[in-house]
Specification:
Blueprint lengths: L8 E5 L6 E6 L5 E4 L5 H8 L6 H6 L30 H15 L2 E3 L3 H9 L44 E5 L5 E4 L13 E2 L25 E2 L3 E3 L1
Parallel strand pairs: 5-8
Antiparallel strand pairs: 1-2, 2-3, 3-9, 4-9, 5-6, 6-7
Length: about 230
């Protein structure tokens, strides 16, 4: 599929699977952004090599560019199908984007900080008046993530840009941060930002720590951007 600026929405289907997801064009930009955060339904295909045959797995195909098994339950028991994927490192999110690009023939990547906020605001100049209508956060989340698309979308049709999981992005200096806040934050908003801290990986017994999984960050996820 060749994307054109006039194409407001497209559905991406993962070859060899039943998994698909929706991308929405960011007005005034030559980029499309995920309607939702990346869910386990999609992330599992890459992370657990579900697109490879038993022979390819045994031969170690893509072994260096896909995660080792996580420490503990990757979903923390919150839920799998329809839930946002959580606990991956920034490196893992970037490697996922490379895989997705190769799989689909399009250029997928993480959003920049400015792209993320522009899309999240969808033209709004202030924070939502009733956060409970659009976001899962500390006061309403029951200490867990929730399936995507349970709250109202923003004006451009994007779900869960605030709350549920904080989303990996890249700042102007090329450094990683998460935006939007998550289910465990008392305050979430367009200006919510956080950098990875050592406590996000405290329980990982490996030395060095896993480059794929954050053992103590079940509040971190991501959504993807596609550019022409």
């Amino acid at each position: 599929m060749i994307l054109t600026p006039q194409q407001a929405v497209y559905v991406e289907k993962i070859p060899g699977s039943l998994i698909e997801f929706t991308m929405i064009r960011v007005p005034g930009k030559d980029i499309w952004i995920g309607e939702t955060e990346v869910t386990w339904n999609l992330f599992d295909i890459w992370a657990f090599r579900l697109d490879l045959s038993d022979h390819e797995v045994a031969e170690g195909v893509d072994a260096e560019s896909r995660p080792s098994r996580p420490y503990g339950a990757a979903d923390w028991g919150f839920g799998r199908s329809g839930y946002p994927a959580i606990g991956m490192t920034h490196h893992a999110a970037e490697e996922f984007c490379k895989w997705l690009s190769k799989k689909t023939g399009k250029k997928y990547r993480l959003p920049t900080e400015d792209e993320w906020e522009f899309a999240a605001r969808a033209g709004a100049s202030s924070e939502p008046e009733d956060l409970d209508l659009v976001a899962w956060f500390w006061q309403n989340s029951d200490d867990k993530t929730h399936p995507v698309k349970m709250k109202k979308p923003n004006a451009w049709g994007l779900y869960d840009v605030l709350g549920n999981v904080a989303e990996w992005a890249i700042d102007d200096d090329g450094k990683a941060l998460v935006c939007g806040g998550s289910w465990k934050d008392k305050i979430v908003g367009f200006g919510s930002r956080a950098r990875q801290e050592p406590k996000w990986n405290e329980r990982d017994p490996q030395n060095p720590k896993s480059k794929w999984w954050l053992s103590d960050a079940p509040f971190v996820g991501f959504r993807v951007v596609c550019e022409r």
